[in-house]
Amino acid sequence: MSIKANLQEVLAGITKDVTLVAVSKFHPNESIMEAYEAGQRIFGESKVQEMTQKYETLPKDIEWHFIGHLQSNKIKYMAPYVTMIHAIDSLSLLKEIDKHAKKVNRTISCLLQIHIAKEETKFGFSFDECRTMLNEEEWKKLDNIRICGVMGMATNCDDQKEIREEFKSLHTFFKEIKEEHFKDEESFKEISMGMSGDYEIAIEEGSTMVRVGSKIFGERIY
Predict the structure, then answer these.
(1) pLDDT tens digits for the chain (222 residues)?
(2) Measured in whole angstroms, how far is the alpha carbon of residue 69 from the centre of its chain?
(3) From the centroid of its chain, how far is CA 206?
């Protein structure tokens, strides 16, 4: 099947209120253009250098979402154009993004990454670490970032009950911090969870944003 057909199939299976981030990391510009010509405008990348090269050579109405683990020394390269950063796992990272966004006179949308999986290797705040960070309110002084919601990755396993429970826990946490810290913030509305293997479950559990790569572009070219 073509990228266009794959994309249409994925879109047919998600509701209108769910945003599709087409994960294009390690895929060439030609593949991205196929999806672009089929109407897709939001793409996700996990390497700053690769994303910047693509930004420079592809249409300017593409929204670039950074979905990988972010090193603070790379922020300056993407601050001029990135639309959303999905994997915020510390206050210091928020401060760095704010600093670089200020230099280019932008406000960058960010998602707080919450560690919901059983695997130790995954990044993110624990629920309690995130509560502490939000309660200390230092983030409120940052004018050039906008916290728009949460992001999480389920355990990479075949146990659908386990995956569902993890997604459920993130949705519950989203509602808790929305109520406590972002009640009047209309922009705090995203729950980014679900990838090629589990996005249907994620949507059932309240995801507003899914990150789908191999199901659209096929297996990655490293």
Answers:
(1) 899 999 999 999 998 999 999 999 999 999 999 999 999 999 999 999 999 999 999 999 999 999 999 999 999 999 999 999 999 999 999 999 999 999 999 999 999 999 999 887 778 999 999 999 999 999 999 999 999 999 999 999 999 999 999 999 999 999 999 999 999 999 999 999 999 999 999 999 999 999 999 999 998 665
(2) 11
(3) 15
Q: pTM for this structure? A: 0.96
| Nearest 10 degrees: Cα torsion 96, 61, 50, 125 | 40
Kindly report the number of other CB atoms within 10 A of residue 92's CB atom: 9
The candidate with the shortest Cα–Cα distance to 192, out of 87, 83, 91, 43, is 87
